[in-house]
Amino acid sequence: MLRTLLLAASALTLLAVPAAAQNKVKIGFIATMSGPAGAIGKDMEDGFRLGIEHAGGKLGGLEPEVIIGDDQLKPEVGVQLVDKMLNRDKVDMVAGIVFSNVMMAAYKPIVDSKTFLVSTNAGPSPIAGAQCSPYYFSTSWQNDQAHEAMGKYMQDKGYKKAYLMAPNYQAGKDALEGVKRYFKGQVVGEVYTTVNQPDYSAEIAQAAASGADALYVFYPGGMGINFVKQYAQAGLKSKLPLHSAFTVDTTTLPAQGDAALGLLGTAFWTDGLDNPVNKKFVDDFVKKHNRVPSTYAAQSYDGALLINAALTQTKGNLADKDALRAAFKKADFKSVRGNFRFNTNQHPIQNFYLFEVVKRPDGKLGTGFKATVFTDHADAYAKDCPMK
Amino acid sequence: MTLSLFLTQALNGVQFGVMLFLMAAGLTLVFGIMNLVNLAHGSLYMMGAYFLAALVPVTGNFFVAAVLAVAASLALGIVVELIALRTLYRRDHLDQVLCTFGLILFFNEIVRMIWGATALFVQPPPILSGFVQLLPGVIYPVYRLTIMGVGLAVAIFLYWLNGHTRLGMLIRAGASNRAMVGALGVNITLLYTLVFGLGAALAGLAGVMAGPILSVQSGMGDSILILTFVVIVIGGIGSIRGALVASILVGVVDTVGRVFLPLVLGAVFSPATSSKVGPAIASMSIYILMAAILFFRPQGLFPAHR
User: Fold this and answer.
1) Whole-angstrom distance, CA of residue A110 vs CA of residue A71
2) Is A260 a domain residue?
3) Which one of A146, A229, A256, B106 is CB 3.0 to 4.6 Å from A260, fit for a cystine?
4) Which of B9, B124, B278 lies nearest to residue A202, judging by beta carbons?
5) Domain membership flag for residue A337
6) Given an 8 Å threshold on Cβ–Cβ distance, is B259 in contact with A259?
7) A196 and A50 in a common domain
8) Does the beta carbon of B8 lie under 8 angstroms from any beta carbon of chain A?
9) Tens digit of pLDDT for each residue in B89-132?
10) What is the pLDDT of residue B273?
């Protein structure tokens, strides 16, 4: 009797699980929400939520439940969050992740459990290359690409001598490698500063005296705010043109102010990019949050659209992973960046644009489109990825 | 390396040192005189910068906003002392570290709740945003010269306050024997509150001066706090004169290390090696300096008389 009851009960639970899972999709969204880089995580979350809203509040007909996790920019916290989301919350997929070091730690447990991971920012080279996974999709870029684009622009512009600066950590070294992959002129200085160094007056004086005709820096977040203010205050804007990636964007522009006006950067997207999807995204984001969205918000917005497109195609079926993967790979959605398709390593093949910091009609600083540097640019690591 | 570039870099080093002095002066006062390890000094610095960023748009005038921001830092320091730190003077240093570390977390979060996670914008007032030619080829931003001027004025003020006023005498007396000064009828509790307020005001002033050149954001005080501790340990805890000398020493050594070490190494090793080793050694240079000074003078350069 007892046995029969137990059997019946377990049969009922088996029935109950897929029934409950069918109309709901749980997404774990991991990002850095606190500390100095917290603005980035906030922008990503806001972009992601706006993407869901524009998809009609549902993802492929399923009710989305977004579980936010703050990794505090600590890889070990990221791994704990992954563990909690996979085992306790039983999420169907994970999205987000700002920093490459957090991504490298969180990556394996997620893809090993055959849970889909949509990176909406970090793009470390190992994941694009030898360690690629069928469960990983990126709606951002591989880390080197924006730097490569600026190197290409500086080369095309005919600069002869460049002075390069970056923080002394892996992403900084990758950045300058990316620039040098396309800039073939002379590098008269290659300087690595301490991470989170507040004052750059000494390095700026060296750069000014180096005889370089172009300056390239990679200073994300607060470092970029410090650097750009000090660069402008040193009176170099008219003497040594500044080129950068991830250094001036709409998360830092309000604090950089007019010091950043006219500076050039490269990215896969700018808020001034002229296409209907982007216009709707930017206008609604500004209306809702009273600030201009950043690349982080744009990538995450696309992440939500990608998930929606994939789930729409599988008609909300989360169980058939092969079908879902095939649907992800199609990337059947209109991206804010224009053309979007996946390479064999499931990173985007996309354009890279040159932007200039401009005052928008509403008086806020934004990134205006200036030129297309790369068309359908693939990353350099896809050839190391065994997936076909 | 031309002479003018060398002079510019020397000036950069001194200027960075003066910036550190503004921070270190308040910290060494509180640490040396009240025997309180105040990790939240960096938070008071951050609050100074935030007060400035918030007050500039309201008042429309940088200088008025700066004065108000320093006053607000003073008031905040007094409130923090009354609420949180007063009971800690007789406790272990570890208890003080715990409490003031908690204050760091508290302040970092409260600025995010009030002003948001994005960094705030402050720029130097127009009158101070130009350049001056000090020597042929040595052109320097006026604002950075102003920082040096303010730092020097603070040094003179503290020297006068500490050595030539009745308040300074009481502060020094309280430092050597708190109980005895109390027994002589001096309100030592009030005195300590004032000293802590003064330290907070100095931290706030440092934040105000840093606002236009640095990013005003949550956690901005944390990185400079470590350097400030290095400075007061090298200078001798509690000594204003030590703080001044040590700040300039640290500022110059740090700048020289960053600029000249890669050049020197580049002459000896291959460019690949020097670009790898240079930044690593440069970032260690001030700690090597500290280790060397403490080896020969464990009390620091100018130990305060206790």
Assistant:
1) 15
2) yes
3) A256
4) B9
5) yes
6) no
7) no
8) yes
9) 888 889 999 999 999 999 998 998 899 878 888 888 988 888 88
10) 74
